[in-house]
Amino acid sequence: MRALARALMLLTLLDLAGCSGNGAPAPSSIRVGTALAADQSLARTLDTMPRTLDPALVTDADGSRVVIDMFEGLTANAPDGSIIPGYASSWEVSPDGRAWTFHLRAGARWSNGDPLTAADFIYAWRHQVDPKTGSENAQELTPIVHAAEILAGRAAPETLGVDAPDPHTIRIALKDPTPYLLDLLADAFMMPLPRASLEHYGDDWTRPGHMVSSGPFMLKELVIGNRISLVKNPNYWAADTVRLERVTYYPLDRATQPSRFMAGDVQYTSFFSPEQYRWLKSQLGDQVQVGPYLGIQMLAFNMLEPPFADNRNLRLALTMAVDRQVLSEQVRQGVFPPAYAMTPVLPGFQEPLPEWASWSDDRRHAEARRLYAAAGYSASHPLKVELVYGTEPTNRDMMDALAAMWRVNLGAQIEPYNEEFRVMLQDLALHKAKLFWNGWAAEYPDPYTFEQLFKTGYAQNFGAYSDPSVDALLAAASVEPDKSKRYRLLEQSETLLNAEAPYIPLIYYSTLHLIKPYVKGVPRNPMDIDGSRYMYILEHEGR
Amino acid sequence: MLRFLIRRLLIAIPTMLLIATLAFALLHGTPGGPFDSAKRMPPAIQHSIEAKYHLNDPLWRQYARYLSDLARGDLGPSYQYRDTSVNELIRQGLPVDALIGSLAMLFAILLGGFFGILAAVRRGSAWDHVPMFFAALGIAVPVFVIGPLLILVFAIELHWLPAGDWEPGSVRFMILPVISLGFPYAAYIARMARSEMIEVLGSPFIRTARAKGLPERTILLRHAIRPVLTPLVSFLGPAFAGVLTGSIIIESVFGLPGIGRYFVTGAINRDYTLVVGITVLYGALIIGFNLLADLCYAWLDPRVRLHS
User: Which has the minimum average pLDDT: A295-299, A504-508, B205-209?
Assistant: First the structure.
């Protein structure tokens, strides 16, 4: 009966979570020791069932998580996200930054004991760019010589600019110096592939029992919609540093992940809804972990048509009328910080904030109203436009808040209009929407990955923004191997973007994890690369 | 009897064809394709993927191919899970739904039937009011509230049962989903059984039985129960199909590997073959269970004749 009473109280708290939840954290009943637990098994969550575990084909964040546990490429990510040697023990680069040579570890083996050689990498990359494979990742390889021609069907996959002079050496020829090459090589789709398995089993090579892998863990069991179980790979080159014996991934609805965590069924969750933050914090205290993430939520303008094309004053008026502090604190419970420019915090990059970012609300609103009037709009002739966003409950409150801010601060009549995500993508590609939701997560830790969204002709430049000076700076940055020089170029291009305002920055995303106090070694980095390789379990009482 | 059966099965064929055609047309008519994503692909690769799944063919040819595969029982490859076929997904998921659904139905019949009949026999007492209060609650409270509430009490607070997951054959993982899924049906059955029983107990043949001096137990178990079961059976046919197909919420609350979740994610991801396949399966199940209910109905009630 006491349990029932407490449960009812919890339910009431759930109802109130939106407006209260400032109570002191419940004392944790878990006691943690200092020695390693005898049972090194970790249960963790995924938001969705991965569409495939084939490293060449995986595109979703959840699939990549599992693939990174099972495969390792030439490079890998340290817990802080930095690049460390993987199957390549060392490498050299030519002075012009175009020719790379990688040396493989001696005695490298696949999980089935077969030798892992340079040929497995060459095979994997040719397979990746071959249009017959149908990989959505293939265009990421275009910095490599001939990749673009192969993708277009004008050259054979064997002409790709990679070769293996001996079984332990790999050479990569690049069209241009590619400053993020080492990050690229750690990505899921750059992993070596076991040619014999692919040729023997065809599409079925990713089944348990067939799948051969190169990483810290190997596939044991896969039940679609329920679980993916991995066990430690004894043939992994650094197997003696891997402490977990078993990792089980559960694809779970985001809403049910916290209850599974609180019941002790899973010990680590990959994400929770920011709407639940204050309530979870009140229940779980330090088990709720929030960290910076390289991702931004913004809006963008259609730059091909009125009312926003050729009306910089109007674009600036809308962006300055947004109260980002309110979006961050009220709408997102303080877990997502406000964004005044494009690139999230990145060491060494001087974020070019617009001048108005530091103004008082009143001053900013006044200037927004002045620009709105200068753009040709007034109370008798208000701006009327739809704000298109993808159907998701967590987007709606944000869009409603924005519409209210524009109504109160400018008198503009902007109607949020939701479309199912795939329908929206199609409309954006056809440039149908005038003002629309846009979000981006970094593919590698570099401002370029964000700013390229406004490069002329870039596939995801949904607003069709085009500025020759921005394009020139981006082109120069993309071939500049010196990081600090690159960052100076990208600071200039971002300054230009902020002045022209083809987008409205709203908030930066954060990593949001629930972690049991006895799970240690969890990687913390702004790319949210959280492989199980470094995690381990301490002795504990209670769950 | 046999003629009735053959007739019904023959009518089912055009119905199934209509279901398959409508599902096919609706999905293909929805904007956005299975391989559209935020990342745009080079044309050669897009083309290669579409060729693999015959999405480049004219729609009529895709439709013809689909129907001819369907006639052979092949529902095609899943677009969403790129290395799995729809048949495989159904083979893997349907047994879970069937087990949970059957147990939930059994739970609902036993619980609802017992308390419904008890309420009718002890009409006006606490044995009537308390179960009927819970029955009203069971009808009013949706599954997505009952499920999390049970999890909160039995998994998070008491740690007696897991909050979700599935091990084939393990009872621990079935208890909460079965109760959550079965409770609303138990509530319906209880109310239905109560009102039927009250009506039957007031009818002349029961009065005759009482006048003959039969013990109350014999009257209830031998004479009254059969007419009470008849309307229940016509409810159970569609309800059983509903339990099998309507466990989508239960599956996602408890993380069960059933087909309902594929159905929802399939629709979001434009997994044409998967969604059409499951729609056809659901259609077949509903037709099948309705037919079964009609047969039982005739067997239970001699006044019903199967010729139409």
Answer: B205-209
Question: What does pTM read for this prediction?
Answer: 0.88
**With the CA atoms of A126, A132, A136 and A142 taken in that order, what torsion angle do they form, in degrees rounded to the nearest 10?**
40
3-state DSSP assignment of residue A171: strand
- The pLDDT tens digits for A76-107 are 999 999 999 999 999 999 988 899 999 999 99
Q: Per residue in B282-296, pLDDT tens? A: 888 888 888 888 888
Say how many C-beta atoms besides its own lie within 10 A of residue B18's C-beta.
11
Predicted ipTM beyond 0.90: no
Q: Bigger pLDDT: A183 or A15?
A: A183
C-alpha–C-alpha distance, residues A59 and A51, integer Å = 8
Q: What is the pLDDT of residue A109?
A: 95
Instruction: Give the three-class secondary structure for B104.
Output: helix
Residue A417's contacts (CB-CB under 8 Å, 6 or more residues apart) are A386, A387, A388, A389
Contacts of A292 (CB under 8 A, 6+ apart): A337, A344, A345, A508, A510, A511, A526
Q: Which of residues 158-197 of B touch A (CB under 8 A)?
A: 158-159, 162-166
- Contact across the interface for B41 and A206, Cβ inside 8 Å: no
Question: Residues 90 to 129 of B: which have CB under 8 A from any A CB?
Answer: 92-93
Query: A504: closest CA among A315, A243, A240, A282?
Result: A315
Amino acid symbol at A460: Q
Strands (DSSP E) found in A56-131: 75-77, 83-85, 88-93, 99-104
B30: contact with A, CB 8 A cutoff: yes
pLDDT score recorded for residue B246:
63
3-state secondary structure string across A490-536: HHHHHHHHHHHCCEEEEEEEEEEEEECCCEECCCCCCCCCCCHHHCE
Closest CB to B89 among A224, A227, A459: A224
